[in-house]
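Hi V.,

Quick status before I head out on leave. The structure for the redesign project is tokenized and pasted below; the design run finished overnight.
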């Protein structure tokens, strides 16, 4: 047998989620449901139906949901970069099977070839032009250019090294770097 909500006594000071009941409101629904004047932890005050408080449908003024939806600084930009890589791979007919975790690990690592730290910035403005932070990253080199973005085929790579390597195989690129190094007598 279910609990009859009408028999639960509610009073000022009671807490339901982030709501605290301040006093009984003079507002009533057409069905006679009692409303309570409540204060949310964030300071917003509002009339909330006793039913919504008791059954948990109303846990806050909306601030709780906003906090749960809010992304970490730079996360929206990271999501944009991830999407751009997937779209770019699809447009070039390349397979993309990196998870977001693998993608983040690669793009937040130092360049495999020269050791440079991530320095490129992906910016994403959200709705109404709000800025949610840059994601600073290094690119990804596909070791075997004939294959797509597969976990075993990808290494972190700065823009400059990626441009220098272009379509060369990793072996060809490293031989070229060695040749330049030896030629300059470094």
């Amino acid at each position: 047998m279910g609990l009859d909500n009408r028999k639960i006594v509610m009073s000022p000071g009671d807490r339901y989620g982030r709501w605290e009941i301040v006093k009984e409101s003079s507002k009533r629904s057409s069905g006679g449901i009692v409303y309570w004047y409540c204060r949310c932890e964030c300071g917003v005050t509002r009339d909330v139906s006793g039913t919504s408080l008791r059954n948990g449908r109303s846990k806050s003024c909306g601030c709780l949901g906003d906090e749960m939806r809010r992304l970490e600084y730079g996360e929206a930009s990271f999501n944009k970069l991830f999407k751009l890589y997937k779209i770019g791979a699809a447009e070039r007919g390349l397979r993309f099977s990196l998870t977001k975790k693998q993608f983040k690990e690669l793009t937040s690592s130092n360049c495999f070839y020269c050791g440079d730290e991530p320095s490129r910035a992906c910016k994403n403005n959200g709705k109404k032009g709000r800025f949610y932070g840059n994601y600073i990253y290094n690119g990804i080199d596909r070791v075997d250019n004939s294959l797509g973005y597969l976990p075993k085929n990808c290494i972190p790579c700065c823009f400059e090294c990626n441009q220098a390597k272009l379509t060369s195989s990793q072996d060809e690129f490293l031989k070229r770097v060695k040749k330049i190094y030896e030629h300059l007598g470094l």
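Above is the designed sequence. Strands lie at 15-16, 19-28, 34-40, 45-49, 120-122, 135-137, 139-142, 154-157.

G. will cover questions while I'm gone.

Best,
W.
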